[in-house]
Protein backbone atom coordinates (compact mmCIF):
# COMPACT_ATOMS: atom_id res chain seq x y z
CA UNK A 1 0.00 0.00 0.00
CA UNK A 2 1.33 3.44 -0.92
CA UNK A 3 1.65 6.12 1.71
CA UNK A 4 -1.03 8.27 0.06
CA UNK A 5 -3.44 5.32 0.27
CA UNK A 6 -2.58 4.70 3.91
CA UNK A 7 -3.23 8.35 4.72
CA UNK A 8 -6.71 8.16 3.18
CA UNK A 9 -7.49 5.54 5.82
CA UNK A 10 -6.17 7.54 8.76
CA UNK A 11 -9.53 9.02 9.63
CA UNK A 12 -10.96 5.52 9.81
CA UNK A 13 -8.19 4.35 12.12
CA UNK A 14 -9.68 6.26 15.02
CA UNK A 15 -7.96 8.62 17.44
CA UNK A 16 -6.49 5.75 19.45
CA UNK A 17 -5.12 4.01 16.37
CA UNK A 18 -1.66 3.63 14.90
CA UNK A 19 -0.56 4.53 11.39
CA UNK A 20 2.63 3.13 9.84
CA UNK A 21 3.98 4.84 6.71
CA UNK A 22 6.12 3.43 3.94
CA UNK A 23 9.75 2.95 5.05
CA UNK A 24 12.53 5.47 4.60
CA UNK A 25 15.27 3.26 3.16
CA UNK A 26 19.01 3.82 3.45
CA UNK A 27 21.46 1.40 1.91
CA UNK A 28 25.22 1.07 2.14
CA UNK A 29 25.33 1.02 -1.65
CA UNK A 30 23.98 4.56 -1.70
CA UNK A 31 26.78 5.55 0.65
CA UNK A 32 29.35 4.43 -1.95
CA UNK A 33 31.14 2.38 0.68
CA UNK A 34 30.41 4.20 3.95
CA UNK A 35 33.58 5.70 5.35
CA UNK A 36 34.16 7.27 8.70
CA UNK A 37 32.49 10.66 8.68
CA UNK A 38 30.25 9.97 5.68
CA UNK A 39 26.55 10.75 6.14
CA UNK A 40 23.24 10.28 4.30
CA UNK A 41 20.12 12.39 4.68
CA UNK A 42 16.54 11.78 3.56
CA UNK A 43 13.39 13.83 4.08
CA UNK A 44 9.75 12.80 4.20
CA UNK A 45 6.80 15.20 4.01
CA UNK A 46 3.15 14.43 4.53
CA UNK A 47 -0.26 15.54 5.70
CA UNK A 48 -2.40 14.27 8.58
CA UNK A 49 -6.10 15.09 8.63
CA UNK A 50 -8.22 15.88 11.65
CA UNK A 51 -8.93 12.57 13.39
CA UNK A 52 -5.47 11.21 12.65
CA UNK A 53 -4.30 8.33 14.85
CA UNK A 54 -2.48 9.06 18.09
CA UNK A 55 0.80 7.68 16.75
CA UNK A 56 2.25 7.79 13.24
CA UNK A 57 5.31 5.60 12.68
CA UNK A 58 7.96 6.36 10.07
CA UNK A 59 10.06 3.19 9.52
CA UNK A 60 13.75 3.89 8.88
CA UNK A 61 15.84 1.10 7.38
CA UNK A 62 19.25 1.52 9.02
CA UNK A 63 22.18 -0.36 7.40
CA UNK A 64 25.33 -1.54 9.13
CA UNK A 65 28.11 0.83 10.01
CA UNK A 66 26.02 3.72 11.34
CA UNK A 67 27.61 5.63 14.21
CA UNK A 68 24.82 8.14 14.85
CA UNK A 69 21.22 8.70 13.85
CA UNK A 70 19.93 12.28 13.85
CA UNK A 71 16.32 13.35 13.36
CA UNK A 72 14.66 16.73 12.90
CA UNK A 73 11.08 17.60 12.16
CA UNK A 74 8.71 20.49 11.66
CA UNK A 75 5.00 20.99 11.17
CA UNK A 76 2.69 23.86 10.25
CA UNK A 77 0.75 25.90 12.79
CA UNK A 78 -2.11 27.49 10.88
CA UNK A 79 -4.51 30.04 12.32
CA UNK A 80 -7.62 28.38 13.76
CA UNK A 81 -10.98 29.79 14.93
CA UNK A 82 -11.29 30.89 18.54
CA UNK A 83 -11.90 27.94 20.85
CA UNK A 84 -10.47 25.43 18.37
CA UNK A 85 -7.31 23.44 18.98
CA UNK A 86 -4.41 24.09 16.61
CA UNK A 87 -1.62 21.75 15.63
CA UNK A 88 0.66 20.18 18.22
CA UNK A 89 2.83 17.20 17.32
CA UNK A 90 5.20 15.22 19.55
CA UNK A 91 8.16 13.10 18.46
CA UNK A 92 10.21 10.14 19.66
CA UNK A 93 11.98 7.05 18.34
CA UNK A 94 12.15 3.26 18.74
CA UNK A 95 15.13 1.17 17.63
CA UNK A 96 15.45 -2.09 15.69
CA UNK A 97 13.87 -4.05 18.56
CA UNK A 98 10.47 -2.79 17.48
CA UNK A 99 7.50 -0.70 18.61
CA UNK A 100 5.59 -3.34 20.54
CA UNK A 101 3.62 -1.84 23.42
CA UNK A 102 5.77 -2.21 26.50
CA UNK A 103 8.58 -3.72 24.44
CA UNK A 104 12.32 -3.12 24.52
CA UNK A 105 12.67 -0.84 21.50
CA UNK A 106 12.14 2.53 23.21
CA UNK A 107 15.06 4.93 22.63
CA UNK A 108 13.60 8.29 23.54
CA UNK A 109 10.84 10.85 23.56
CA UNK A 110 10.91 14.62 23.66
CA UNK A 111 7.23 15.33 23.12
CA UNK A 112 6.99 18.79 21.63
CA UNK A 113 9.95 20.17 23.57
CA UNK A 114 12.54 19.71 20.77
CA UNK A 115 12.65 19.88 17.01
CA UNK A 116 15.72 17.68 16.63
CA UNK A 117 17.70 14.98 18.41
CA UNK A 118 20.62 12.60 17.88
CA UNK A 119 21.60 9.22 19.29
CA UNK A 120 24.95 7.45 19.29
CA UNK A 121 26.59 4.82 21.45
CA UNK A 122 28.36 7.41 23.59
CA UNK A 123 25.77 10.17 23.95
CA UNK A 124 22.24 11.27 23.15
CA UNK A 125 20.16 14.42 23.21
CA UNK A 126 18.34 14.84 26.55
CA UNK A 127 15.16 12.81 26.41
CA UNK A 128 16.88 10.03 24.48
CA UNK A 129 18.94 6.98 25.43
CA UNK A 130 22.52 6.59 24.26
CA UNK A 131 23.53 3.21 22.87
CA UNK A 132 24.68 1.49 19.69
CA UNK A 133 22.88 2.33 16.46
CA UNK A 134 22.34 -1.21 15.24
CA UNK A 135 21.18 -2.24 11.79
CA UNK A 136 17.50 -2.92 11.31
CA UNK A 137 14.20 -1.09 11.10
CA UNK A 138 14.00 1.88 13.44
CA UNK A 139 10.80 3.90 13.80
CA UNK A 140 10.49 7.63 14.21
CA UNK A 141 7.14 8.17 15.92
CA UNK A 142 5.04 11.29 15.50
CA UNK A 143 2.34 12.02 18.06
CA UNK A 144 -0.22 14.44 16.60
CA UNK A 145 -1.54 15.58 19.96
CA UNK A 146 -4.06 18.00 18.48
CA UNK A 147 -4.81 18.59 14.80
CA UNK A 148 -6.28 21.78 13.34
CA UNK A 149 -9.37 21.62 11.09
CA UNK A 150 -7.07 22.18 8.09
CA UNK A 151 -4.99 19.17 9.07
CA UNK A 152 -1.29 18.99 9.89
CA UNK A 153 1.53 19.21 7.34
CA UNK A 154 4.80 17.71 8.60
CA UNK A 155 8.36 17.15 7.47
CA UNK A 156 10.73 14.57 8.97
CA UNK A 157 14.45 14.55 8.14
CA UNK A 158 16.70 11.63 9.08
CA UNK A 159 20.48 11.73 8.85
CA UNK A 160 22.70 8.67 9.29
CA UNK A 161 26.36 9.26 10.12
CA UNK A 162 28.79 6.41 9.51
CA UNK A 163 31.91 5.49 11.42
CA UNK A 164 33.24 3.49 14.36
CA UNK A 165 30.37 2.82 16.78
CA UNK A 166 32.06 4.19 19.89
CA UNK A 167 32.02 2.76 23.39
CA UNK A 168 28.78 2.95 25.38
CA UNK A 169 29.07 4.59 28.78
CA UNK A 170 27.73 2.57 31.69
CA UNK A 171 25.02 4.62 33.41
CA UNK A 172 25.53 5.63 37.03
CA UNK A 173 22.24 5.76 38.90
CA UNK A 174 21.46 7.42 42.25
CA UNK A 175 21.70 5.25 45.38
CA UNK A 176 18.41 4.21 46.94
CA UNK A 177 19.29 5.31 50.45
CA UNK A 178 20.71 8.45 52.05
CA UNK A 179 22.00 9.03 55.57
CA UNK A 180 18.78 10.49 56.95
CA UNK A 181 17.76 10.87 60.58
CA UNK A 182 16.38 7.44 61.39
CA UNK A 183 12.62 7.32 61.90
CA UNK A 184 11.56 10.86 61.12
CA UNK A 185 9.40 13.09 58.94
CA UNK A 186 11.05 13.59 55.54
CA UNK A 187 10.09 16.28 53.03
CA UNK A 188 10.00 15.52 49.34
CA UNK A 189 8.80 16.58 45.91
CA UNK A 190 8.15 13.67 43.56
CA UNK A 191 6.83 15.33 40.40
CA UNK A 192 9.60 17.31 38.71
CA UNK A 193 10.93 18.05 35.24
CA UNK A 194 14.24 19.12 33.72
CA UNK A 195 15.68 19.64 30.25
CA UNK A 196 15.42 15.86 29.87
CA UNK A 197 11.77 16.37 28.90
CA UNK A 198 9.96 19.72 28.71
CA UNK A 199 11.57 21.46 31.69
CA UNK A 200 14.10 24.29 31.56
CA UNK A 201 16.22 23.48 34.62
CA UNK A 202 19.27 21.25 34.37
CA UNK A 203 19.51 18.40 36.90
CA UNK A 204 22.08 20.44 38.83
CA UNK A 205 19.75 23.45 38.95
CA UNK A 206 16.88 21.24 40.08
CA UNK A 207 18.95 19.73 42.88
CA UNK A 208 20.07 23.19 44.02
CA UNK A 209 16.44 24.32 44.13
CA UNK A 210 15.48 21.21 46.11
CA UNK A 211 18.15 21.85 48.70
CA UNK A 212 17.14 25.51 48.92
CA UNK A 213 13.54 24.37 49.54
CA UNK A 214 14.65 22.23 52.49
CA UNK A 215 13.78 18.92 50.85
CA UNK A 216 15.15 15.54 51.89
CA UNK A 217 14.19 13.70 48.71
CA UNK A 218 13.07 14.29 45.14
CA UNK A 219 11.93 12.07 42.29
CA UNK A 220 12.86 12.67 38.67
CA UNK A 221 9.69 12.17 36.61
CA UNK A 222 10.25 13.19 33.01
CA UNK A 223 7.42 12.82 30.50
CA UNK A 224 7.53 9.36 28.89
CA UNK A 225 11.27 8.83 29.17
CA UNK A 226 13.83 7.46 31.59
CA UNK A 227 16.70 9.43 30.07
CA UNK A 228 17.23 11.54 33.21
CA UNK A 229 17.78 8.54 35.49
CA UNK A 230 21.53 8.65 34.89
CA UNK A 231 21.75 12.45 34.65
CA UNK A 232 22.09 13.15 38.38
CA UNK A 233 25.52 11.59 38.85
CA UNK A 234 27.42 13.39 41.59
CA UNK A 235 24.41 15.49 42.64
CA UNK A 236 23.07 13.39 45.51
CA UNK A 237 24.50 13.33 49.02
CA UNK A 238 23.85 12.42 52.63
CA UNK A 239 21.33 15.27 52.76
CA UNK A 240 19.37 14.45 49.58
CA UNK A 241 17.95 11.20 48.21
CA UNK A 242 17.16 11.18 44.49
CA UNK A 243 14.58 8.62 43.35
CA UNK A 244 13.92 7.66 39.75
CA UNK A 245 10.55 7.53 38.07
CA UNK A 246 8.51 8.73 35.10
CA UNK A 247 5.45 10.82 34.37
CA UNK A 248 3.49 8.46 32.17
CA UNK A 249 1.73 10.96 29.93
CA UNK A 250 -1.21 9.41 28.09
CA UNK A 251 -4.03 11.07 26.15
CA UNK A 252 -6.40 10.34 29.05
CA UNK A 253 -4.37 11.48 32.03
CA UNK A 254 -0.91 11.55 33.56
CA UNK A 255 0.44 9.28 36.27
CA UNK A 256 3.57 9.58 38.39
CA UNK A 257 5.51 6.33 38.63
CA UNK A 258 7.32 7.10 41.88
CA UNK A 259 10.52 5.26 42.73
CA UNK A 260 10.76 2.72 39.92
CA UNK A 261 13.99 0.81 39.40
CA UNK A 262 16.48 2.98 37.51
CA UNK A 263 16.24 2.53 33.77
CA UNK A 264 12.73 1.03 33.83
CA UNK A 265 10.60 2.36 30.97
CA UNK A 266 6.81 2.41 31.34
CA UNK A 267 4.82 2.77 28.12
CA UNK A 268 2.17 5.45 27.61
CA UNK A 269 0.72 4.64 24.17
CA UNK A 270 -2.87 3.79 25.13
CA UNK A 271 -6.14 5.40 26.13
CA UNK A 272 -8.66 4.46 28.79
CA UNK A 273 -10.86 2.73 26.21
CA UNK A 274 -7.97 0.40 25.33
CA UNK A 275 -8.16 -1.21 28.81
CA UNK A 276 -4.37 -1.43 29.08
CA UNK A 277 -3.60 0.80 32.06
CA UNK A 278 -3.84 -2.01 34.61
CA UNK A 279 -1.10 -3.88 32.75
CA UNK A 280 1.29 -0.96 33.05
CA UNK A 281 0.31 -0.11 36.61
CA UNK A 282 1.40 -3.64 37.47
CA UNK A 283 4.66 -3.04 35.65
CA UNK A 284 5.25 0.06 37.78
CA UNK A 285 4.83 -2.02 40.94
CA UNK A 286 6.97 -4.85 39.58
CA UNK A 287 9.69 -2.24 39.13
CA UNK A 288 9.34 -1.23 42.78
CA UNK A 289 7.33 1.95 42.14
CA UNK A 290 4.11 3.57 43.29
CA UNK A 291 1.24 4.46 40.95
CA UNK A 292 0.05 8.02 41.60
CA UNK A 293 -2.44 9.74 39.26
CA UNK A 294 -1.26 13.32 38.76
CA UNK A 295 -3.46 16.47 38.68
CA UNK A 296 -6.61 14.38 38.00
CA UNK A 297 -8.69 17.48 37.20
CA UNK A 298 -5.98 19.39 35.35
CA UNK A 299 -7.20 21.72 32.63
CA UNK A 300 -4.62 20.95 29.91
CA UNK A 301 -5.54 18.74 26.95
CA UNK A 302 -5.22 15.09 27.98
CA UNK A 303 -4.63 15.90 31.65
CA UNK A 304 -7.99 14.78 33.08
CA UNK A 305 -7.70 11.34 34.68
CA UNK A 306 -9.95 8.80 32.90
CA UNK A 307 -8.55 5.45 34.09
CA UNK A 308 -10.23 5.22 37.49
CA UNK A 309 -8.38 4.72 40.76
CA UNK A 310 -8.51 0.96 41.29
CA UNK A 311 -4.86 0.59 40.26
CA UNK A 312 -3.55 3.61 42.20
CA UNK A 313 -1.43 3.63 45.37
CA UNK A 314 -2.03 7.31 46.20
CA UNK A 315 -3.41 10.38 44.43
CA UNK A 316 -1.87 13.77 43.77
CA UNK A 317 -4.54 16.09 45.17
CA UNK A 318 -2.43 19.27 45.12
CA UNK A 319 -0.33 20.17 42.09
CA UNK A 320 1.79 23.34 42.05
CA UNK A 321 0.06 26.60 43.05
CA UNK A 322 -3.28 25.79 44.65
CA UNK A 323 -6.02 26.31 42.05
CA UNK A 324 -9.72 25.39 41.61
CA UNK A 325 -8.86 22.04 39.98
CA UNK A 326 -7.01 21.07 43.18
CA UNK A 327 -10.09 22.05 45.18
CA UNK A 328 -12.20 19.74 43.02
CA UNK A 329 -9.70 16.90 43.41
CA UNK A 330 -9.63 17.23 47.19
CA UNK A 331 -13.42 17.26 47.36
CA UNK A 332 -13.62 14.13 45.21
CA UNK A 333 -10.88 12.46 47.27
CA UNK A 334 -12.68 13.28 50.51
CA UNK A 335 -15.81 11.59 49.17
CA UNK A 336 -13.84 8.38 48.72
CA UNK A 337 -12.81 8.56 52.39
CA UNK A 338 -16.44 8.37 53.39
CA UNK A 339 -16.84 5.11 51.50
CA UNK A 340 -13.63 3.72 53.00
CA UNK A 341 -14.81 4.62 56.50
CA UNK A 342 -17.67 2.17 55.98
CA UNK A 343 -15.24 -0.56 55.01
CA UNK A 344 -16.14 -0.29 51.31
CA UNK A 345 -12.72 -0.74 49.78
CA UNK A 346 -9.34 0.74 50.53
CA UNK A 347 -8.56 4.42 50.75
CA UNK A 348 -5.99 6.32 48.71
CA UNK A 349 -3.57 8.58 50.58
CA UNK A 350 -3.20 12.15 49.34
CA UNK A 351 0.13 13.60 48.20
CA UNK A 352 1.19 16.95 46.78
CA UNK A 353 3.93 17.85 44.29
CA UNK A 354 5.18 20.98 42.57
CA UNK A 355 5.29 19.67 38.97
CA UNK A 356 7.96 22.37 38.55
CA UNK A 357 9.33 22.81 35.04
CA UNK A 358 11.10 26.17 35.07
CA UNK A 359 11.53 29.44 36.89
CA UNK A 360 9.58 30.97 38.54
CA UNK A 361 7.82 27.69 39.39
CA UNK A 362 8.89 26.75 42.91
CA UNK A 363 10.36 23.34 43.66
CA UNK A 364 8.73 22.10 46.87
CA UNK A 365 5.47 24.04 46.35
CA UNK A 366 3.88 21.89 47.55
CA UNK A 367 5.84 19.10 49.22
CA UNK A 368 4.81 15.83 50.82
CA UNK A 369 6.11 15.20 54.34
CA UNK A 370 6.41 11.47 55.01
CA UNK A 371 6.96 9.56 58.25
CA UNK A 372 9.53 6.90 57.33
CA UNK A 373 11.85 4.59 59.21
CA UNK A 374 14.81 5.97 57.29
CA UNK A 375 15.63 8.02 54.21
CA UNK A 376 15.35 5.26 51.65
CA UNK A 377 13.17 4.42 48.68
CA UNK A 378 11.50 1.50 50.43
CA UNK A 379 10.79 3.31 53.69
CA UNK A 380 9.42 6.42 51.98
CA UNK A 381 7.15 4.35 49.76
CA UNK A 382 5.86 2.44 52.77
CA UNK A 383 5.04 5.73 54.47
CA UNK A 384 3.27 7.13 51.43
CA UNK A 385 1.30 3.94 50.81
CA UNK A 386 0.16 3.89 54.45
CA UNK A 387 -0.91 7.54 54.35
CA UNK A 388 1.58 8.58 57.02
CA UNK A 389 2.06 11.92 55.33
CA UNK A 390 0.90 15.49 55.07
CA UNK A 391 1.32 18.25 52.51
CA UNK A 392 2.69 21.77 52.95
CA UNK A 393 3.34 24.72 50.68
CA UNK A 394 6.89 25.09 52.03
CA UNK A 395 9.36 23.76 54.57
CA UNK A 396 8.62 26.77 56.76
CA UNK A 397 5.44 25.04 57.89
CA UNK A 398 5.58 22.33 60.50
CA UNK A 399 2.73 20.48 62.14
CA UNK A 400 1.73 17.51 64.25
CA UNK A 401 -1.72 15.98 64.19
CA UNK A 402 -2.99 13.27 66.53
CA UNK A 403 -6.05 11.73 68.11
CA UNK A 404 -5.99 10.55 71.72
CA UNK A 405 -8.47 8.32 73.53
CA UNK A 406 -8.64 6.91 77.05
CA UNK A 407 -6.05 4.58 78.58
CA UNK A 408 -3.21 5.98 76.52
CA UNK A 409 -4.73 5.19 73.14
CA UNK A 410 -3.11 7.27 70.43
CA UNK A 411 -3.12 7.52 66.63
CA UNK A 412 -1.27 9.74 64.19
CA UNK A 413 -1.78 10.67 60.56
CA UNK A 414 -2.88 7.70 58.46
CA UNK A 415 -3.54 5.52 61.50
CA UNK A 416 -6.69 4.29 63.25
CA UNK A 417 -7.63 5.10 66.85
CA UNK A 418 -9.49 2.00 67.97
CA UNK A 419 -12.17 3.29 70.32
CA UNK A 420 -15.80 2.55 70.97
CA UNK A 421 -18.41 4.69 69.28
CA UNK A 422 -19.25 6.69 72.42
CA UNK A 423 -15.73 7.04 73.79
CA UNK A 424 -14.47 10.61 73.89
CA UNK A 425 -11.58 11.41 71.57
CA UNK A 426 -9.36 14.49 71.65
CA UNK A 427 -8.05 15.65 68.28
CA UNK A 428 -5.04 17.93 68.50
CA UNK A 429 -3.20 19.94 65.85
CA UNK A 430 -0.01 21.89 66.42
CA UNK A 431 1.06 24.09 63.54
CA UNK A 432 3.78 26.69 63.10
CA UNK A 433 5.32 28.73 60.32
CA UNK A 434 2.13 29.74 58.53
CA UNK A 435 1.48 33.23 57.24
CA UNK A 436 -0.95 35.84 58.56
CA UNK A 437 -4.65 35.41 57.95
CA UNK A 438 -4.60 31.62 57.98
CA UNK A 439 -7.17 29.40 59.64
CA UNK A 440 -7.43 25.76 60.67
CA UNK A 441 -10.28 23.42 59.69
CA UNK A 442 -11.01 19.88 60.89
CA UNK A 443 -12.85 17.91 58.19
CA UNK A 444 -14.85 14.75 58.92
CA UNK A 445 -17.23 12.51 57.02
CA UNK A 446 -19.88 15.18 57.77
CA UNK A 447 -17.70 17.99 56.49
CA UNK A 448 -16.10 20.75 58.55
CA UNK A 449 -16.96 20.39 62.23
CA UNK A 450 -14.32 22.67 63.72
CA UNK A 451 -12.45 25.77 62.65
CA UNK A 452 -10.35 28.50 64.22
CA UNK A 453 -8.04 31.31 63.16
CA UNK A 454 -4.28 31.08 63.42
CA UNK A 455 -2.73 33.98 65.38
CA UNK A 456 -0.51 36.41 63.52
CA UNK A 457 2.45 34.63 65.10
CA UNK A 458 1.75 31.73 62.73
CA UNK A 459 1.73 29.24 65.61
CA UNK A 460 -1.33 27.48 67.00
CA UNK A 461 -2.34 24.50 69.10
CA UNK A 462 -5.95 23.55 68.38
CA UNK A 463 -8.01 20.89 70.20
CA UNK A 464 -11.40 19.45 69.44
CA UNK A 465 -13.33 16.68 71.16
CA UNK A 466 -15.50 14.19 69.35
CA UNK A 467 -16.48 10.52 69.26
CA UNK A 468 -16.17 7.80 66.64
CA UNK A 469 -19.95 7.74 66.26
CA UNK A 470 -19.89 11.46 65.41
CA UNK A 471 -16.81 11.43 63.14
CA UNK A 472 -15.59 8.33 61.28
CA UNK A 473 -12.38 10.15 60.43
CA UNK A 474 -10.87 13.56 60.88
CA UNK A 475 -8.28 15.38 58.82
CA UNK A 476 -6.82 18.85 59.13
CA UNK A 477 -6.46 21.73 56.71
CA UNK A 478 -4.61 25.00 57.12
CA UNK A 479 -5.97 27.59 54.72
CA UNK A 480 -5.02 31.08 53.64
CA UNK A 481 -7.69 33.76 53.83
CA UNK A 482 -10.11 33.64 50.88
CA UNK A 483 -9.60 36.34 48.28
CA UNK A 484 -13.20 37.52 48.57
CA UNK A 485 -13.11 37.69 52.34
CA UNK A 486 -15.34 34.64 52.61
CA UNK A 487 -18.39 36.11 50.87
CA UNK A 488 -18.70 33.13 48.50
CA UNK A 489 -18.22 30.54 51.22
CA UNK A 490 -15.32 29.06 49.26
CA UNK A 491 -12.26 28.61 51.47
CA UNK A 492 -8.95 30.20 50.63
CA UNK A 493 -5.95 28.44 49.09
CA UNK A 494 -4.37 25.57 50.98
CA UNK A 495 -1.27 26.15 53.10
CA UNK A 496 -1.09 22.63 54.52
CA UNK A 497 -3.28 19.54 54.83
CA UNK A 498 -3.09 16.08 56.35
CA UNK A 499 -4.24 12.62 55.50
CA UNK A 500 -7.01 11.38 57.83
CA UNK A 501 -6.91 9.78 61.22
CA UNK A 502 -9.54 7.05 61.38
CA UNK A 503 -11.77 6.70 64.44
CA UNK A 504 -13.54 3.55 65.60
CA UNK A 505 -12.97 -0.15 65.97
CA UNK A 506 -13.18 -0.91 62.24
Backbone CA Rg: 25 Å
Distance between the termini: 64 Å
In DSSP terms (H or I, runs of 4 or more residues), the helix count works out at 6
Category by helix and strand content? mainly beta
Low-confidence stretches: 1-15
CATH architecture of the largest domain: Alpha-Beta Barrel
* Beta content: 35-45%
Work out the count of structural domains: 3
Give the CA-based shape: elongated
If you consult CATH, what is the topology of the largest domain?
TIM Barrel
The helix content, as a percent range, equals 10-25%
GO molecular function, one term: 5'-3' DNA exonuclease activity
Protein name: PHP domain protein
Domain Polymerase/histidinol phosphatase N-terminal: 188-252
Amino acid sequence: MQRRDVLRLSALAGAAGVLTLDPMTFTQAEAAGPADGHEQTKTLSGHLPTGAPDFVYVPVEVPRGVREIAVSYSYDKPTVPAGTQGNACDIGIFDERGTELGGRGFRGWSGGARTEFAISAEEATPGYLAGPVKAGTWHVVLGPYTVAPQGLDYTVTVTLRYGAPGTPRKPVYPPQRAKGRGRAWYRGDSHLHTVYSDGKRTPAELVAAARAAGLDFITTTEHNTTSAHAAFEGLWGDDLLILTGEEITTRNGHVVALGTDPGTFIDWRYRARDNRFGQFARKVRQAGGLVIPAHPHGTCVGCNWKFGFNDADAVEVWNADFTPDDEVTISEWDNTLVAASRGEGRWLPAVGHSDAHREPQVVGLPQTVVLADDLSRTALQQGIRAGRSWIAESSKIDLTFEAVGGRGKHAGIGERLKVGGAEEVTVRLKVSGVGPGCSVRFITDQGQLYGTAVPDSGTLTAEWRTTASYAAYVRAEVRHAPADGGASGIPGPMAAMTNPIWLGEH
